[in-house]
Amino acid sequence: MDRGTLPLAVALLLAGCSLSPTSLAETVHCDLQPVGPERGEVTYTTSQVSKGCVAQAPNAILEVHVLFLEFPTGPSQLELTLQASKQNGTRPREVLLVLSVNSSVFLHLQALGIPLHLAYNSSLVTFQEPPGVNTTELPSFPKTQILEWAAERGPITSAAELNDPQSILLRLGQAQGSLSFCMLEASQDMGRTLEWRPRTPALVRGCHLEGVAGHKEAHILRVLPGHSAGPRTVTVKVELSCAPGDLDAVLILQGPPYVSWLIDANHNMQIWTTGEYSLKIFPEKNIRGFKLPDTPQGLLGEARMLNASIVASFVELPLASIVSLHASSCGGRLQTSPAPIQTTPPKDTCSPELLMSLIQTKCADDAMTLVLKKELVAHLKCTITGLTFWDPSCEAEDRGDKFVLRSAYSSCGMQVSASMISNEAVVNILSSSSPQRKKVHCLNMDSLSFQLGLYLSPHFLQASNTIEPGQQSFVQVRVSPSISEFLLQLDSCHLDLGPEGGTVELIQGRAAKGNCVSLLSPSPEGDPRFSFLLHFYTVPIPKTGTLSCTVALRPKTGSQDQEVHRTVFMRLNIITPDLSGCTSKGLVLPAVLGITFGAFLIGALLTAALWYIYSHTRSPSKREPVVAVAAPASSESSSTNHSIGSTQSTPCSTSSMA
Question: Which cellular component terms (GO) are annotated to the entry (predicted)?
């Protein structure tokens, strides 16, 4: 809707303000029947879950979330996004996400910059791209034991059960529940902590309104009350695929009194809502709605009173944050699906891209092996007629439950370089006229060298093995020779200072740990870099340390089974400056302690000397009372000594006395 069509929308809105008798709503005849997906489809995003809980754990070091996901039989695709809230520039807490699924899932995980630990069943969850996070195998426990297992690692912030989700958005640091302990309860609203989109669209129904002439159509959306009754804005996106002049329609939105609407429509139409609504082109302009019936029959009556002859879509939804309506009726003849029984053969849903991602590559004993499980192929409804290497004479073997294609590095068209062996997997699918191709690789680990380097400047020119407290150090990890098909990533780093200094975590889950660590841009060759600043607040200061980093070589194609992990380390010497090291860079702790003690000692000696001079240079007349009251003088001296002793806890005062 553009600005020029707004007067028409207002005119239509005013024209509909003459209310007819409400008795029409009770006598309207309209037999709602399911509408085919080609005529209308409604998808939505909601925070309502069948079971869930949200609790507060503000002082917890680890933020724990648990997801129980139920999928229908067969592999499903899931997009899971973790989003960290940025508050006062602080870094997000470490996160443990427990993912419990009942069947095979292809997971697309996004958790950029979040120190994430993921617990899941590796036999059921397959990553479409390398996750790049710390992972843990989830034991095969029932739900109650999984919750107990997660609670042993930290207080649970949220837990939810979802049925066949297509996408999930989990917001970290957003828990605002009143509970201090998370226990699953039925029909919960997760608020801003979790929003999800069901895979199955909402049921869309339609009907003809008897006794009304014309071709005006109505789209009715009824949002049911949720578990919580706080103010909520529902964004409604309406996309009608017809020419502007061919449409005469009314949009009826009914929901709880605490719901307002933000409408984004691609066509001009009459709008009839409860609560308040605004248009996307004028979001700051709120328009008051009307009091509408809260029953299906009542809403059908409203559509008839607005002179609609066709209810093109009637949808009832749980409380949602985003609703998308796609329709193509445009006032034409309504087409319904009289029965939900499928009478035509299912369309071939084979996804070549997803099928190729299921090919597992294994490298061992100077041979490359490709494995494709038949069960996964069957769930994708794919019919494979051939699996070969680049050389078509090298064909896969049928081993009952899987196809296995194996070749030595010296045959089947293998391309051997100093660091990598490459080939191509070729899959012929019955539903595709051309074969599907995928690059496959094996790394020659004997030829790869991983180096960890420490530098004293951000130019990374002069390598060093010495660090100094208070001085920034720069680290770079390299692999040689470089491999363009693989990406070198830094998973974690820590500095082991032995029993004297303990372990300092620098990087966890590919995220910087602490304010004194910064991830830097990679080198022109793609080598990961970071910097850190080391401080010591205890004595003695360690003289040596070990810097250890875990790196991963991940194929850019996203094949998780080809990941290679290595741990590299280097010994570091730690310089411990003495008092002569008081330069413009600042004073280290031993120097500060030495100066403080020296100032205190000088101050005490000066005070004693002044008191001695004062007590021996007074006139005899003023000196005698002091002799007569020797005890009080001793008390005063004791008080003075006590005052002098107390300056040890305030080094700043001692320094000024000196």
Answer: cell surface; endothelial microparticle; external side of plasma membrane; extracellular space; nuclear body; receptor complex
DSSP class of residue 335? -
**Cβ pair 78, 104 in contact under 8 A:** no
What are 380-406's pLDDT values in tens digits? 888 888 999 999 999 999 988 889 999
The three-state DSSP-derived secondary structure of 36-76 is: CCCCEEEEEEECEEEEEEEECCCCCCEEEEEEEEECCCCCE
Q: Cis omega before residue 131 (within 30°)?
A: no
Q: What are the start and end residues of each CATH 2.60.40.3210 domain in the chain?
A: 350-441
- Asked if pLDDT for residue 514 goes beyond 50, the answer is yes
Q: Domain 447-572 - what CATH class?
A: mainly beta
Query: What helix, strand, coil percent values describe the chain, rounded to 5?
Result: 20, 40, 40
Peptide bond into 540 cis (omega under 30): yes
pLDDT at site 163: 94
* Torsion angle defined by CA atoms of residues 307, 313, 316 and 320, in that order, rounded to the nearest 10 degrees: -110
- Cα–Cα dist 76/519, whole Å: 35
What tokens appear for 186 in the block? 């039925």
Q: Which of 266, 241, 200 is nearest to 34 (CA)?
A: 200
The dihedral region occupied by 460, where left means phi > 0, alpha psi between -120 and 50, and beta the remainder, is left
At a CB cut-off of 8 Å and minimum separation 6, what does 113 contact?
Answer: 84, 92, 510, 511
For the entire predicted model, the pTM comes to: 0.60
Mean pLDDT for 582-598 is 60
Cα dihedral sign, 298-302-308-313: negative
Which of 79, 110, 170 minimizes the C-alpha distance to 159?
A: 170
Percentage of the chain lying above the pLDDT 90 cut: 34
